[in-house]
Design goal:
heterodimer, A: about 350 residues, mainly alpha, 14 helices, about 55% helix, B: about 475 residues, alpha/beta, 16 helices
Chain lengths: ~350, ~475
């Protein structure tokens, strides 16, 4: 009779990488749905294209490295969906393919795959196309246009390697009220117009495909946190420190700086805080480190928004946080049990 | 809710966990209920420790009364079932032995005698396989089937006689019982109880947590042998000089807590405290923290903070065997697992081969994996021809069918940090695992406190990447030990 010989523990929990990743994907579906409802075919095509590109790139690098497929860990799907949600809804599809490829190839595979990557792959992809296609990445389209489920926005179907057509005329044809072609952050920065909290919360503003509705992102994030598939401390730290920083600036000069609620609800901060900064592989593991990392991202985001040349700062703030993660981990090792100061002994 | 209540609630976690049992015990010692203990009792105090995990407990056998197991035709009795020097055999092949007779004597202070677990004849004396794979000197006894198997060798002592004994005589009498740490540590009981005169013990912690899944033998003993337990605690208090004892019991055993509470002596020297059901609540560090709010300084023994910890099973057997003047010839243990048809708690003679034991409980054929002890820290055995010893608290059998087809796929560490939230020692298993993969074993010990790990298995349990962390740490420790010795 053969006996199994194993070392303890002989019980394993029910968590697995696949399960965590699947739940993250699941929680992203409402945000994707809202985006498609707002922007129609173009947003749908963008989501599918980027995700498919990410999966194909992942498989390609598995082959190249002669390793078993890692598609079934679902992490490439997350990268694809998150990346698509940060792009403008009518982003040309061929540029989206570039973004997806760069995200997985440079952001993840070259580092050694899941767990070894230093930066959030989706943000690497987004940073690349922001530098490569500065016009396309800031070309916004109105939500809820009448023909959104019957036709693509002209820019979506730009021929590969071609620059997208000008869509000013097309936008006028849509005749959507009050569409300005600029994000709330850009309008604040360049025109000093502050969008209403109500619009920002419900998502009736100009923005990237999945960054419009702060409340929806919060709800989806709350689900993940409640199921313990996400570390709630990170979004709390990011949003808390961003709000605090914004509040201090507003105290200093209320005429020039907007209210903390505007800072929290506008741009990509919500999606970044809830879904990007919480990427497990690229955030610290130590209890103290998590708070430092989150707080750092919040402060840097506000600083870039207020004093940088860009209108949005979340992406670079998170990438900076990612870069500092190993350092933060190293200097915030937990206090080991049994090393408490003797003076405190009861 | 009033502000006052809110304040109390928010302070509940830290404050109550630490203060309640202390206050309760102090009040009990003083023989009156203080205002403070009245307040803390409002929260129906459940003491606990930070971190840890909640595995499925499978404590179904906890409601089944203890039953007696039949005698195997042959018993294999190892001479070293304790930590310390092996006993010296004092019988010869062919000699008849009676149940309870000393067949090997203690070799010095840190050693224990071994008693014949059954009446029969010595068939062989020589090396036999033991549970951990090592060959150990053992006495094989062929059991007389027609014998009534009464314990024939005993020297009963009355309570007055025991009360008249001085400390040294008492310790010697305890050594004669042959009791080692029955929770699995197997440290001789009398050695653990003999506290050096310069050390003051203020609290005896009686460990009834039984946090390992499946195991319920401590539970049943607390319910069915409560008087033995209380008597044993009394002896331990006397010898250690501790003024009070706290029995910590996880709150998934309310009947045990109730039984103990009903049997507590009137002088208030012994208290019982409910603990949160959480693994590893019963580890030495964690139970002391949960009950007293004290941390054992790294690398030191509980005595350094005035605490002595004993398992309930050990003290219950002490309370039973010391007055009876008998040696330990059997013990209560849990036989369970999906591969067992009649799981339960059994009184099993020391030396019973596992093959016989599993046949008796209807182990389904093809036991695929057999674990000695609990599933979190127990070890698998390679052969069923090894005996039950004093330290065997459980035998878990998993049939071939219950084992996973293949091990789950191991992914790279995704740095989710779950292991940090689980580690009761506040280590960083994630970082330790990454270093182990690179074989940087010295760095693990020097910078990341590898030696503080006691292999409770929490990190491996929660790891979503299924990295065999504990196994890696064992290897790292072994390599470091080897390096240190050369």
């Amino acid at each position: 009779m053969s006996m199994e010989l194993r070392t303890s523990p002989h019980l394993v929990g029910d968590r697995s990488v696949e399960r965590i990743m699947k739940h993250v994907v699941l929680s992203l579906l409402p945000i994707c749905g809202f985006s498609v409802w707002q922007y129609g075919l173009s947003a749908l095509a963008l989501l599918l294209t980027v995700t498919a590109t990410c999966l194909a790139t992942e498989r390609l690098f598995n082959r190249a490295a002669k390793q078993p497929s890692t598609l079934n860990d679902w992490s490439a799907v997350i990268t694809g969906v998150l990346l698509a949600l940060t792009l403008p809804p009518a982003f040309p599809l061929w540029m989206a393919v570039v973004a997806g490829f760069v995200a997985i190839a440079i952001g993840k595979a070259l580092f050694g795959g899941l767990g070894s990557n230093v930066f959030n792959p989706a943000l690497i992809g987004r940073a690349f196309v922001q530098a490569a296609f500065p016009v396309a990445i800031t070309t916004w389209v109105p939500a809820f246009s009448a023909q959104r489920f019957s036709e693509f926005v002209p820019t979506t179907l730009t021929a590969p390697l071609m620059m997208p057509p000008d869509i000013v005329e097309w936008v006028k044809l849509q005749a959507v009220d009050a569409f300005t072609g600029a994000t709330p952050l850009a309008r604040w920065k360049f025109e000093n117009v502050v969008a209403s909290s109500h619009d920002l919360l419900t998502g009736v503003v100009t923005a990237s495909a999945g960054e419009t509705s702060a409340i929806l992102i919060l709800l989806c994030g709350a689900y993940l946190a409640a199921r313990k598939f996400m570390d709630w401390r990170i979004p709390v730290a990011v949003l808390g420190s961003a709000a605090l920083t914004a509040w201090l600036f507003q105290l200093y000069d209320p005429a020039h700086f907007p209210a903390p609620t505007f800072v929290l609800l506008s741009g990509g901060l919500m999606l970044g805080a809830v879904y990007m900064a919480t990427d497990m592989a690229t955030s610290p593991v130590t209890p103290l480190g998590v708070w430092i990392y989150g707080a750092l991202i919040g402060v840097v985001t506000v600083m870039i928004r207020y004093f940088g040349g860009l209108t949005e700062g979340v992406m670079y703030a998170i990438l900076l946080g990612n870069a500092l993660t190993p350092l933060i981990d190293r200097y915030t090792q937990p206090r080991v049990f049994g090393t408490r100061q003797q003076g405190k002994k009861k | 809710m009033k502000v006052n209540d809110l304040l109390l609630k928010s302070g509940e976690r830290g404050e109550r966990a630490e203060a309640a049992p202390v206050a309760e015990a102090r009040a009990a010692v003083a023989g009156r209920k203080s205002v403070f203990s009245f307040f803390t009792s409002l929260f129906s105090g459940k003491a606990t420790f930070p971190h840890g995990i909640h595995p499925e407990y499978h404590k179904e056998t906890g409601s089944l009364p203890i039953r007696r197991m039949a005698f195997a035709p042959r018993l294999i009795v190892p001479l070293s079932q304790h930590i310390g020097k092996p006993a010296v055999c004092c019988v010869s092949v062919g000699q008849e032995v009676s149940r309870g007779q000393v067949i090997a004597t203690a070799d010095g202070f840190v050693s224990l005698p071994v008693h014949a677990p059954a009446t029969g004849v010595v068939e062989a004396i020589g090396v036999m396989p033991s549970a951990n794979g090592k060959m150990v000197e053992s006495v094989t006894i062929r059991v007389y089937e027609a014998d009534s198997q009464q314990v024939l060798v005993s020297a009963p002592r009355s309570d007055d006689e025991i009360a008249a004994m001085d400390k040294q005589t008492l310790l010697a009498a305890i050594q004669q019982t042959g009791i080692s740490g029955l929770g699995g540590a197997t440290f001789p009981a009398h050695v653990k109880l003999s506290v050096p005169p310069e050390v003051a013990i203020d609290t005896l912690v009686v460990n009834g947590a039984e946090c390992e899944p499946f195991l319920t033998c401590d539970h049943r003993v607390m319910v069915e042998r409560t008087r033995d337990l209380i008597r044993g605690i009394g002896y331990a208090l006397r010898i250690s000089g501790a003024p009070r004892a706290i029995i910590g019991v996880e709150d998934n055993k309310p009947d045990a807590i109730a039984a103990i509470r009903a049997a507590l002596p009137a002088d208030g020297s012994i208290a019982v405290q409910a603990l949160e059901t959480k693994y590893p609540q019963g580890a030495e560090d964690t139970i002391i923290y949960a009950l007293l709010g004290r941390e054992i300084p790294a690398g030191q023994r509980p005595a350094s903070i005035g605490v002595l910890v004993n398992n309930v099973m050990t003290l219950a057997y002490l309370g039973r065997l010391l007055p009876a003047g008998e040696g330990i010839v059997e013990r209560v243990l849990t036989v369970a697992g999906p591969g067992v048809e009649k799981p339960g708690n059994y009184i099993v003679p020391i030396g019973t081969p596992l093959r016989f034991l599993l046949e008796q409980v209807g182990a389904r054929s093809n036991a695929g994996e057999v674990i000695l002890g609990g599933p979190m820290m127990g070890m698998t055995i390679s052969s069923l021809d090894v005996p039950v010893t004093k330290g065997t608290s459980g035998v878990l059998a998993f049939g071939k069918a219950q084992l996973p087809e293949e091990a789950p796929r191991v992914y790279a560490c995704i740095k989710c940090g779950e292991c940090l939230k689980a580690c009761p020692k506040f280590l960083n298993p994630s970082q330790l695992g990454l270093l182990a993969a690179k074989r940087e074993y010295e760095e693990m010990a020097e910078r990341y406190n590898l030696d503080r790990c006691f292999e409770c298995g929490c990190c491996s349990y929660v790891c979503p990447s299924h990295i065999p962390l504990v196994q890696q740490f064992r290897i790292a420790k072994a390599v470091n030990r080897e390096k240190a010795s050369t």
